[in-house]
Amino acid sequence: MSFILLLGIMFALTVLGLPLFYSIIFSSIITLFIYLPYVPVNIVAQQVMQGLDTNALQALAFFFLAGELMSVGGITSRIIRFVTSLLGRWKGSLAYINIFSSLFFGSISGSAVASTAAIGSSLIPEMKKQGYPAPFSAALTQSASIIGPIIPPSVPMIVFAALAGAGVSVGKMFLSGIIPGIMIALTLILVTFILSKLYQYGSQPISFSWKEVKNSAKDAIWALFCPIIILFGIISGVFTATEAGAVSVIYAYLIGTFIYKELSFELLKKALTSALKGTITVMLIVGASSIFAWMIARLQISHQVAMWVSSVCDNPIQALLLINLIVFFIGMIMDPTAALTILVPVFIPIINQFGISPIHFGLVIILNLMIGLITPPVGYLIYLSANIAECEPIKVLKESIPFLLSLLGLLILLILVPEFSTFLPNLLFQ
C-alpha cells in the first residue's frame, strides 16, 4: 500500500504539470509523514545531497558538455559525408547511411533525442528527395537513434551507474553496450534491406570515388577519434570515466575551435547553456531519487516486490523477463531518466537475489526504455521525427512497426544471452 501511495502521488503531481523533481520530493515527504511520522523531515535534504555525491554525476556533466560541443562544432556533417562516401555506391544507400551515421554520432552524443534531431534534420529531407516516403524516413531515423544511448559514451548508463551503487562502474556499463549497439545497427540494416526490396525505396546510387573517401575520412578522422580515446583511456586505466569526460570536453573544444574552426563564441555559449540545463535536470532527478530509494528500502518495498517475483519465477531468466515486461509498460508512458530513477532502487536488490549481473540488467533495461521512446502513447521521438519529416505521427508509428518488432526481438535475445553484454566488461575489467 505504501508503494502505491508513493507512486500514485508522484504520478498525480507529474500529470498536473509539476516538474518530476518536485513530484518525487513531495510524494516522498507525504509518504514519510503517513508511514514514518517519527523520522525527522530533514532526512529528505540529507538523502538528496547524498545522492548527488557521486563521481558518476561528474562524468555526466562532462559528457553532456562534450556532446554539445561536438554537435555544434561541425561533427554531424562530417560524419554523414564520410559514411556517404563509403556506402553511397549502392542503390537505396541513404537508408543505410542513416543507420551508420546514427551509430557514429551515437558514439559522440550518447543521446537518442540529439541523434534524431541532428541526423534527422540532415538526412530526412534528402531521403524524401530520393524517393523514400516521409513516414518511412522518420521511422528509420528514430529507430536508429536509440543506438546513441547504447554505444558509449551513454548518458543513461551514467545515470544507471549512479543509481545502482557500488560494483557498477561507468566504464563497465560503457563496454557492455558495444556489442549490443552493433547488433542493433545490423538488425535495422536487415529490416531496411527487406523493406526497401519489397517497396522499391530509394533512387540511383551515388558514384563512388576513392578520392572522396580519402578526403571525407581525413575531414572526419578527428571526430571519430573521440570515442576511441575515451574507451582506450578507460580500458587501459589511464583515466577514470569522469576523467575521460573531462578529456573529451577539452578534445571537443580544441577540435571545434582550431581544426574545424566552426566553434564560435556564440556556439560555445549555446553549448554551455544546453549542457548546463541537461546536467541540472538529470542531477535534480537523481538527487531526488535518493530519498525515493531510501523510502523504498525503509518501507521494505523491494523485499515485498522480491517476494512476489520469487513466487512467480523459478530462475533468473524468468525473473529478468518479468522485470523487463514491467519496464516495457512503464517505458511507454515515462521518460527514461524518470523510469530509471523509480525502477533501479526497486529492482537492484531483486536481481542480486537471483544472481543476475547488474551490468547485464542495466544494459537490457536501458535498451528497453529506449524502445519506449518510439512506442506510443508518449514516444516523443515519434513526434520529433514526424515534425522533421513534416508528416503525421500516426503514419510514422505505422512505418515503425517492423523496426519496433525487430528491436523487441533483439531485446529478448539480449535478455536470454547475457554474454552479449557482459563479455567485454568481464574480459577487460578483471
- Number of discrete helical segments: 21
List segments where confidence is low: pLDDT < 50 over at least 5 consecutive residues.
none
**Envelope shape:** globular
Distance between the termini: 43 Å
Count every beta strand, where a strand is a DSSP E run of 2 or more residues.
0
Largest sheet properties: none
Helices and strands, in order, run as HHHHHHHHHHHHHHHHHHHHH
**Mean pLDDT figure:** 86
Content of β-strand: under 5%
**Which class do the helix and strand fractions yield?**
mainly alpha
> Radius of gyration from the CA trace?
22 Å
* Helix fraction by DSSP (H/I, runs of at least 4): over 70%
Task: Characterise the protein shown here.
By secondary structure, the chain is an all-alpha fold. 80% of the residues lie in helices and 0% in strands. It contains 21 helices and no strands. It has helices at 2-15, 20-35, 43-52, 55-72, 75-87, 93-109, 112-129, 134-145, 155-164, 170-176, 178-199, 210-236, 241-259, 265-298, 301-312, 316-331, 336-353, 358-372, 380-389, 393-416, 419-428. Helix 5 crosses helix 12 and helix 16 (316-331) packs parallel to helix 18. The chain is globular.
Layout of secondary structure:
Layout: H1 2-15, H2 20-35, H3 43-52, H4 55-72, H5 75-87, H6 93-109, H7 112-129, H8 134-145, H9 155-164, H10 170-176, H11 178-199, H12 210-236, H13 241-259, H14 265-298, H15 301-312, H16 316-331, H17 336-353, H18 358-372, H19 380-389, H20 393-416, H21 419-428
